[in-house]
Design a protein that fits this description.
This protein is an alpha+beta fold and 151 residues long. The chain has a single domain, classed as Nucleoside Triphosphate Pyrophosphohydrolase (Alpha-Beta Complex), CATH 3.90.79.10. It has three helices and seven strands, in the order E-E-E-E-H-E-E-E-H-H. The radius of gyration is 15 Å and the shape is globular. The mean pLDDT is 92.
């Protein structure tokens, strides 16, 4: 590996409504995949700001994080980027009707856990199922575990 190693920080949201969960169907490369609403942390942004922004951009839903489900490390190949995913649970505080979604988004899908499991071949990464399973097992940590500071 050349240069300085830097993991890529991403955020994701688990959003439940009536026993179903909100997923995005998106284009990755040349295939359609399923993922939680998720994306990269932008410079100067807190994790909570990032997850709220990503959910809005990908789903037009205003998301309020209420808990941290977990922090996940995913490395696809030793020479490839390592992702650190911060997954949050929360609630929808409304929808911006008519808002244009990110260009990669093909559709929004409300799926039961069984429906998601049945479509494992479409999961963008193993973290899609793991985040949902962890949420369903009751894993929710206080947002107080997060600390933001400026040097």
């Amino acid at each position: 590996m050349s240069g300085r190693w830097r993991p890529s920080a991403t955020v994701a949201a688990v959003i439940e409504r009536d026993g179903k969960f909100l997923f995005v169907e998106e284009i990755q490369g040349d295939r359609r995949v399923l993922n939680q609403p998720a994306g990269h942390l932008d410079p100067g942004e807190t994790l909570l700001q990032a997850v709220a922004r990503e959910v809005l951009e990908e789903t037009a839903h205003r998301f309020e994080p209420t808990a941290l489900v977990g922090i996940y490390r995913c490395q696809y190949d030793p020479e490839e980027v390592t992702f650190l995913r911060f997954c949050f649970a929360g609630r929808v505080a409304g929808v911006q009707e008519g808002r244009a979604l990110d260009k990669e988004i093909v559709a929004l899908r409300w799926l039961t856990p069984a429906e998601l499991r049945a479509q494992r071949a479409m999961h963008r990464s193993p973290l899609v199922q793991q985040c949902l399973d962890d949420y369903l097992s009751g894993r929710q940590f206080s947002l107080a575990v997060l600390s933001e500071s400026h040097a």
